[in-house]
Amino acid sequence: MADKPQILELWPTRILRHSLPGAAEANPLLIKEILELERSNPDLTTEYLKAGLLQRPHPALAWLKTCIDRAIADYAKGVGIDYALDWQVQAWANVNRFGDYHNLHNHPHSWLSGTYYVQVPARPRPLPGRADRNPGAISFYDPRPQANMLAVRGDPQIDPEFRILPTPGEILLWPAFLHHLVHPNLSDEMRISISFNVVLRWKAAYLP
């Protein structure tokens, strides 16, 4: 029995955040490829399950697929999974122009979800009005409803939202159940990212 009080951290929500080596060389190639795909399919962003983006024979996409697989393995190790997993990655491109955003959502039927940031606008267009806008940011929400209702100042439960302003070359990976939204792009520059789901090929060994 410990001689000091113990504080147990129960049910944490873990998000991987990492800047990928090689991104500066890969991103211009990814931008060109994604915009060419969008010219032939203006609904590229919304028809995400039809894309098969990472199956395309392109060196920058092959690089990204390798990086995503490595991030998944790092995430699994970081959360204590010490056995082999078998997964497939469903990926699609997002091209957000001025005013584009993504509503609050999660990703059903997946284990993890993630996004790789290819191009993030450096500055928004100067606009009149409120100053609390968060253009280009992604917000994640506490998955435990009303967990902050009795929180007091300094309590880590007080803020139900966690916000990240990503930079080009960053990858984020999180549990697919986690609700999130992408704030509007308020820049004249496009915001380009590649989102993906990690779907496990089922094995009986996964059972607790």
| Gap from first CA to last CA | 28 Å
Proportion of helical residues? 10-25%
Which outline best applies?
globular
Which fold name fills CATH's third level, the topology? Jelly Rolls
> What is the CATH architecture descriptor?
Sandwich
The radius of gyration is 19 Å
Please identify the top-level CATH class. Answer: Mainly Beta
The largest β sheet comes out as:
5 strands, antiparallel
Provide the domain count: 1
Question: What is this structure's SSE topology?
Answer:
Elements lengths: L15 E4 L3 H18 L18 H20 L8 E10 L5 E4 L6 E8 L18 E4 L19 E4 L5 E6 L4 E3 L8 E10 L8
Antiparallel strand pairs: 1-7, 2-9, 3-8, 4-7, 4-9, 5-6, 5-8
Helix pairs in contact: 1-2
Properties at a glance:
single chain, 208 residues, alpha+beta, Jelly Rolls, five-stranded antiparallel sheet, four-stranded antiparallel sheet, 2 helices, 9 strands, 25% strand, globular
Short description:
Helix content is 18%, strand content 25%. It contains two helices and nine strands; from the N terminus they run βααββββββββ.
